[in-house]
Design goal:
Layout: E1 2-6, H1 18-21, H2 24-43, H3 53-79, E2 102-105, H4 114-132, H5 135-143, H6 151-162, E3 166-171, E4 174-175, E5 179-180, H7 187-196, E6 201-205, H8 215-223, E7 230-233, H9 240-247, E8 252-256, H10 262-275, E9 278-283, H11 286-293, E10 300-304, H12 316-322, H13 324-332, E11 336-340, H14 346-355, E12 359-362, H15 364-367, H16 372-380
Parallel strand pairs: 3-6, 3-12, 6-7, 7-8, 8-9, 9-10, 10-11, 11-12
Antiparallel strand pairs: 1-2, 4-5
The protein binds ligand LARABZUK.
Residues 114-115, 170, 172, 175-178, 304, 306, 308, 340-343, 361-365 line the site of the ligand O=C(O)c1ccccc1NCC(=O)[C@H](O)[C@H](O)COP(=O)(O)O.
């Protein structure tokens, strides 16, 4: 353990009862209170903020409770086999402890892998975004958002028309595992080239820090008149992001089973349904698949061949997760399966199609081509546009 700055977490005066502390109402109330206080502060930025000892202590207390709740949530998630922790486990918010402010740091405070790092960053990013665009304003924005389009319908229609899996073509400039994929990147041009090449739907990376994407790309593609339904490819950690994505023109959103515990997943699915978003629920292993098959109402499951913790890609993962009883259950539930990542050749497509997928999500192999329309022809070994 290395001590850089010492942070002391203490709330001896007003500890909340542990049963109440873990209730969703308490968690939401804490988060919203904190966001409200910050939003009020940012609205009045021209006026000097008088920081009284009482509002500082309220904010500090809320931060601490928020951190405590995060730890509790991680404990619940771990019982479901989820390895991704939602925030650093041993670092409570920095507290003023007199003349010395020190933060205890140890290995537990470092993300264990890239997915965990992305999730921790996303949590901070979303907290800041919520202050700029509070939920009530997004709910208003939804009234003027472009109508959502039928994502699953487009995939099914494409499969019926072409006899090969419907293509979700990914508008992706860069990725943590591959670096920059397309230097001269014009998202609208790429999107139009994909549409011309016969893509059923598009996936638009909106994360800027790790993928050099952005919500402005999603919005621009939608506003450019591209007809393919759009997947907002984000790391969803908070329901607020669903409203934001829909307001920016998304028709579908990605929900990662390795990040969201069952209760969060069910909650997100409900909100998606309420606001007209299709959920692409992503799994990578048997445990995640079994957890998602136990949840009602999922119509689209993506099997990611890429392990987002190690970057290892193996397309036989799709086959493995569709074998035996799992495959049977998927057919019974009439779930459309999307094969994701690491698909480069007609043989790869045939392999996952044989395993049972009716749709594929492809980025690297087509975005890297000078002409992405031609990239699609090469991927399938034929023209699927007509
Ligand atoms: O692609 C990455 O390096 C990555 C790293 C961490 C989290 C997610 C990541 N990628 C998301 C995806 O799974 C892919 O963008 C998508 O399935 C397309 O994959 P590909 O065809 O291999 O570009």
């Amino acid at each position: 353990m290395k001590a850089l700055r010492l942070g002391v977490y203490c709330d001896p005066i007003n500890p909340a009862p542990s049963t109440f502390k873990s209730s969703p109402i308490f968690m939401d109330a804490r988060k919203n209170n904190l966001a409200c206080i910050r939003a009020q502060q940012s609205k009045t930025k021209d006026v000097p903020i008088i920081t009284t000892s009482s509002n500082v202590s309220v904010i500090e207390e809320l931060k601490s409770k928020d951190w405590e709740i995060g730890v509790l949530k991680d404990e619940i998630a771990a019982t479901q086999g989820i390895r991704i922790r939602r925030r650093p486990p041993t670092a409570p918010p920095l507290h003023y402890v007199g003349p010395l402010e020190l933060l205890l740091q140890n290995e537990g405070n470092s993300p264990r892998n890239i997915l965990e790092e992305i999730v921790w960053n996303k949590d901070v990013e979303v907290t800041q975004m919520k202050e700029r665009y509070p939920l009530f304003s997004l709910k208003e924005a939804l009234n003027s958002a472009p109508p959502s389009r039928d994502f699953v319908g487009a995939l099914k229609a494409s499969y019926l028309r072409t006899g090969v899996p419907g293509l979700i073509a990914e508008v992706k400039k860069a990725s943590p595992s591959r670096g920059v994929l397309r230097e001269d990147f014009h998202p609208v041009e790429v999107a139009k080239a994909y549409e011309k090449g016969g893509a059923a739907c598009l996936s638009v990376l909106t994360d800027s820090k790790y993928f050099q994407g952005g919500f402005e790309n999603l919005e621009a593609i939608r506003n450019a008149g591209v007809k393919c339904p759009l997947l907002c490819k984000e790391f969803i950690v908070d329901a607020w992001q669903l409203y934001y994505g829909r307001a920016k023109g998304a028709d579908a959103v990605l929900l990662i089973a390795g990040v969201l515990p069952d209760l969060d997943m069910k909650y997100m699915l409900k909100i998606c349904k309420m606001i007209g978003l299709t959920a692409l629920v992503e799994v990578h292993d048997e445990n995640e698949m079994d957890r998602m098959l136990a949840i009602d109402g999922i119509e689209l499951i993506g099997i990611n061949n890429r392990n987002l913790e190690t970057f290892e890609v193996d397309i036989s993962n799709t086959k493995k997760l569709l074998e035996g009883e799992r495959g049977e259950k998927i057919r019974q539930k009439d779930i459309i399966v999307v094969g994701e990542s690491g698909l480069f050749t007609p043989a790869d497509i045939a392999y996952v199609q044989e395993a049972g997928v009716k749709a594929i999500l492809v980025g690297e192999s087509i975005v890297k081509q000078k002409d992405p329309t031609q990239g699609i022809i090469e991927l399938f070994g034929k023209d699927i546009s007509a």
